[in-house]
Write a structure and sequence with these properties.
Largest sheet: 7 strands, mixed
CATH architecture of the largest domain: 2-Layer Sandwich
Bound molecules: 3,4-dihydroxyphenylalanine
Distance between the termini: 90 Å
Number of domains: 2
Order of helices and strands: HHHHHEEHEHEEHEEEHEHH
Strand content: 15-25%
Number of strands: 9
Helix content: 25-40%
CATH topology of the largest domain: BirA Bifunctional Protein, domain 2
CATH superfamily of the largest domain: Bira Bifunctional Protein, Domain 2
Structural class: alpha+beta
Length: 345
């Protein structure tokens, strides 16, 4: 390998260049080729550089330049090989880890709304269509809001502790959503159109139609010149929208301390269309709401002028609406958290 002239050096450079060329085409690993050509002890290019010492001084610069050119070529070639190898390795990996996005996925079980939530939302939608907004109030309520301001005085039978969960003499779990009427009228000036959904509590033993905790929606409209016709029209529109346009609606005289006149509102039985069945106890009618024109005494509690203003109010049980709509014959199903029941909605 020793040489002493530029001629011989040129031959060697050319030979190594050709050898490198054919090595790179034979797909050897970049690391092997690096060792073979640039290895610190015996790399072919390294050895050439070592021979420079023996080249006559006059020819050294020229010879050094050529060897360096070769070295740069080899380095560039190795770089190219390395990036090709990396690209190929990546391609192999992508191929082996390929994901078929068209395969059907594993469905995760997703929850959905509870039937009582569905009914509440639907009722909210019907009333918001008529311009009502949704209000909220506390479940722990004072006797003032739950009773007194609703014209239910101290010794009224509705206050009986047989029916009410008292926390103290003046605090209780609200027995209806009607106190939100009072709270809203205190905060807002008329005209007013609101509904208030929420939980209420009564000391009832659980059975097919009773639960110590259940849900109501209260409604209230107050404006100048509101009449019983507005009241009837609103509730008829609501009940027909919720059940069906064929549903007939009936207003029966009744009594509530906070409305005058008061009514209980029935619909024609949706199971027998009024012919009489077990659900309507052969009467053809099912009671759905308590309601009436706001009693002037209630307006006085909130500083509304009963001479100028009129209003109507109503209250309904969400469970009752859900039982009729979905033909559920036991209110306890709504609270049992049995998936066989819940998954049907
Ligand atoms: N608060 C009554 C109850 O729980 C329902 C009710 C009746 C609400 C008449 C009203 C109403 O707003 O006007 O039985």
């Amino acid at each position: 390998m020793l040489c002493y002239g530029v001629e011989m050096l040129d031959e060697q450079i050319e030979r190594i260049r050709n050898e490198f060329e054919s090595d790179t085409q034979r797909a050897r690993s970049p690391q092997d080729l690096h060792n073979k050509y640039l290895g610190r002890k015996s790399g072919l290019v390294t050895l050439l550089l070592k021979q420079l010492q023996q080249v006559p001084a006059a020819e050294k610069p020229n010879a050094g330049k050529r060897i360096n050119e070769l070295k740069l070529e080899v380095e560039a070639g190795l770089d190219r090989l390395e990036s090709e190898a990396a690209a190929q390795a990546l391609a192999v990996r992508l191929e082996s880890e390929r994901v078929d996005v068209t395969l059907p996925g594993n469905r995760r079980p997703a929850g959905h709304a509870h039937p009582l939530t569905l009914v509440r939302s639907e009722i909210e939608e019907i009333f918001s269509f008529m311009g009502y907004s949704v209000e909220d109030g506390p479940e722990i309520e004072s006797a003032f809001y739950n009773f007194e301001a609703l014209n239910i005085p101290e010794h009224h039978p509705a206050r009986d502790s047989q029916d009410t969960f008292y926390i103290s003499d003046s605090l209780l779990l609200r027995t209806h959503t009607s106190p939100v009427q009072i709270r809203t009228m205190q905060k807002q000036r008329p005209p007013l159109r609101i509904i208030c959904p929420g939980k209420v509590y009564r000391r009832d033993n659980p059975d097919a139609t009773h639960s110590p905790a259940f849900q109501q929606i209260e409604g209230l409209a107050v404006d100048e010149g509101l009449t019983f016709r507005d009241f009837k029209g609103t509730l008829e529109f609501f009940l027909k929208s919720f059940f069906s346009q064929k549903t007939r609606v009936r207003f029966r005289p009744s009594y509530f301390a906070f409305t005058e006149p008061s009514a209980e509102v029935d619909i024609s039985c949706i199971f027998c269309s009024g012919a009489g069945c077990r659900v309507c106890k052969a009467s053809g009618w099912v009671e759905m709401l308590g309601a009436g024109m706001v009693d002037p005494a209630v307006f006085r509690y909130v500083d509304y002028d009963p001479e100028k203003l009129a209003g109507f109010a109503f209250g309904l049980g969400i469970e009752r609406f859900a039982m009729l709509k979905y033909s559920v014959n036991n209110i306890q199903h709504f609270y049992d958290s049995d998936l066989r029941f819940l998954e049907q909605f």
